[in-house]
Amino acid sequence: MIVAGRVSQKMAPVVRNLYDQMADPKWVIAMGVCASSGGMFNNYAIVQGVDHVVPVDMYVPGCPPRPEMLMDGIVKLHDKIKNEQFVQRPRKGESMESYRKRTGWIDLDPTVPGVSLAGVDRYADLGGRA
Q: Residue ranges per domain, the chain?
């Protein structure tokens, strides 16, 4: 799935439903600043990053992203898929918060969405800080 543009609060359940209906394996690309972080629209009606709704595998920066950046994101996702082993995905109807708790997902910096240490020794990669 490629999410392009901002996602409103009304549209978030529809996007999640679409994601739940996708066949496994599932991959999501957030294309552009609006999809990645809500962009300049910091208000009550816009979701501040589609990763609050569905897990994102690749972020493509830009406003709007250049075609070369989208192609680069697709190629990097292809490489990631080629080297990937089975990963757990959210179950149907499961919130992102409970998915993160179930899989051991830890946010290094809560202001930077999508950074995870799932399956990694927490203290080794953090330089001793928790």
A: 2-93
Calpha distance 1→50 (Å, rounded)? 12
The two three-digit tokens of residue 72, written as one number: 């680069």
Distance between CA atoms of residues 47 and 119, nearest Å:
28
Yes or no: domain 2-93 corresponds to CATH 1.10.10.10: no
Q: What confidence tens digit (pLDDT) does each residue in 82-93 have?
A: 876 666 677 777
pTM higher than the cut 0.70: no
Longest dimension (CA), the chain: 42
